Backbone:
């Protein structure tokens, strides 16, 4: 309800909830919970807002109220004491916290796009931008295609309009997410929309290039190493999107990748990585892996370790395989890997990953880099560089924060490095 500012709030709440896997219902009755974004500008708007809250309570019962009328909670409580929560305008973080409290998001490590910790409140200076839903692949450990259906991309005009609004609302970093970002637009036959006076096709490259015009950091997640990813790496070389690629490789043994039915399994990944690093020496490569997939032998696991030594990925996460109900992998005749073996493999894998990370970070000492400040506490600033996605990667700690402010960019000199994090001091 109300003015464009309320609309931006609604959109931000929706964007965030969609990114976390919540869906928008078509009616109050079909919803698990209702958020009413109110207007309190004139009496008529107050009446209309109170009426909307009453309708939502009658039809659904679980109602969170936000928006301008929320700044006068007593007015709402006098008429509707049973609302779950009342927040004022632009308090979307509190709205999200309340949604989490009353309708907790389920975390599925193999399915969710965001880390478990990622459902914490997003500070205002970064935002997740979901560009599509569903997936056309059939990875045997995954039930996304049966749960969420085949790939459905959002039209490029809609995605860019949302990104533009986010930047206008103060967002400095956009994290592009989907199940398969590099497949964006395939289902739309790459249909074009006009944006900023020019036609833009719904293609991964064109979307990344257009987002790169917004002046924010653009970080790409869940990219598969298809050949056309090379074009996007060129945008990184030009400084239009962050030199950061999050590619869920999941394994390196050909045999296990086949059993997993991974897309692009046959690509020569080490050659691709070498080519990307040649084109963009400062590129950060992040990936996730699964150890202990059914039938994974010592040789398969050694192949993964060997590949990791050669690949020298900057950021790595690793899950022990656990079966997901309804996944095709459950029907594989291969023997399950015992839990203690899975655990031991994960530990060995992460030890190697930590060694590689520490070596790569040590190389950064003495360099001056740009960071985005996430928080400042007791004179210490906690920031991220182009190499660090929020929640899942490392951070840059700046002991003498001085005048550094949350949500602002700063130039810092790296003075020390640990296994995952860096220490820095402000420059200039
Ligand atoms: S690419 Fe594979 S793991 Fe990812 S969503 Fe699609 S089927 Fe699932």
Residues:
């Amino acid at each position: 309800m109300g003015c464009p500012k309320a609309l931006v709030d609604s959109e931000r709440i929706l964007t965030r909830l969609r990114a976390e896997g919540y869906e928008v219902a078509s009616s109050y009755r079909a919803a698990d919970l209702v958020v009413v974004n109110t207007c309190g500008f004139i009496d008529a708007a107050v009446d209309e807002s109170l009426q909307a809250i009453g309708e939502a309570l009658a039809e659904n019962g679980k109602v969170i109220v936000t928006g301008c009328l929320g700044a006068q909670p007593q007015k709402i409580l006098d008429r509707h004491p049973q609302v779950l929560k009342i927040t004022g305008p632009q308090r979307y973080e509190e709205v999200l916290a309340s949604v989490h409290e009353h309708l907790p998001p389920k975390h599925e490590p193999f399915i969710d796009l965001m880390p478990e910790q990622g459902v914490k409140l997003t500070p205002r200076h970064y935002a997740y931008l979901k560009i599509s839903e569903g997936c056309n692949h059939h990875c045997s450990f995954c039930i996304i295609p049966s749960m969420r259906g085949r790939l459905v991309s959002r039209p490029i005009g809609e995605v860019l309009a949302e990104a533009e609004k986010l930047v206008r609302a103060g967002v400095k970093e956009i994290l592009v997410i989907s199940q398969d970002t590099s497949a964006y637009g395939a289902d739309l036959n790459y249909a074009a929309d006009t944006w900023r006076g020019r036609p833009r096709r719904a293609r991964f490259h064109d979307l990344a290039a257009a987002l790169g015009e917004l002046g924010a950091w653009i970080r790409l997640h869940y990219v598969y190493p298809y050949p056309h990813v090379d074009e996007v790496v060129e945008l990184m070389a030009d400084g239009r999107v962050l030199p950061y690629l999050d590619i869920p490789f999941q394994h390196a043994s050909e045999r296990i990748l086949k059993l997993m039915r991974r897309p692009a399994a046959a690509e020569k990944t080490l050659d691709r990585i070498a080519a990307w690093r040649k084109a963009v020496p400062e590129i950060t490569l992040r990936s996730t892996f699964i150890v202990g997939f059914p039938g994974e032998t010592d040789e398969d696991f050694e192949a993964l370790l060997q590949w990791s030594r050669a690949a020298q990925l900057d950021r790595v996460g690793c899950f022990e395989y656990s079966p997901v109900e309804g996944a095709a992998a459950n029907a594989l005749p291969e023997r399950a890997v015992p839990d203690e073996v899975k655990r031991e493999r994960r530990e060995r894998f992460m030890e190697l990953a930590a060694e590689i990370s520490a070596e790569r970070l040590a190389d950064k000492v003495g360099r001056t880099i740009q960071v985005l400040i996430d928080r400042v506490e007791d004179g210490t600033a906690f920031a991220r560089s182009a190499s660090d996605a929020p929640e899942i990667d490392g951070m840059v700690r700046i002991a003498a924060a001085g005048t550094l402010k949350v949500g602002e960019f700063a130039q810092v000199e790296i003075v020390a490095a640990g296994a995952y994090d860096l220490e820095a001091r402000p420059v200039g």
Observations:
- The two ends are 46 Å apart (CA to CA).
- The pocket of iron/sulfur cluster is lined by residues 135, 137-139, 142, 144-145, 179-180, 263 (CB under 6 Å).
- The chain has twelve helices and 18 strands.
- Residues 115-121 have pLDDT under 50 and may be disordered.
